[in-house]
Design a protein that fits this description.
Strand order of the largest sheet: 1-2-3-5-4
Structural class: alpha+beta
Radius of gyration: 19 Å
Strand content: 25-35%
Distance between the termini: 47 Å
Number of strands: 6
Number of helices: 2
Amino acid sequence: MVSPKMVFLAVSVILGFGGMAAAHHSNAAYDLDHPETVEGTVKTVNWTNPHITFVVETDVKNAEPASTWVFEVSSPGVLTRSGWTKRSLQPGDHAVFRYAPLRDGNPGGFLLKVTLPIGQELSYSLTPADQ
């Protein structure tokens, strides 16, 4: 027979880890209500789980110097199901990046869409039904 203390301990552990998983997948760090765009050149690509990241050097505009931004994207699996490959966006590629900015004001954010100079748009869906 299982004691009430064991049941309480098991439930506590499950709820504790569940909260950590939910926090990891939170988008609270990004201002999804006010997307922005920036133009720049990809410097590095980190195509790994759990999230792909792109390091981008922005173009010099309006007398502002170039700066380095980091954009986070979903997982390789989500992007692959949406038609991306590891070669879709490579170092040296210039593009327009639409993103949800970081709430803390640091340069970067959650990447929503990429538009290449030829007009091709790279986007993705987090919902399998939309893929």
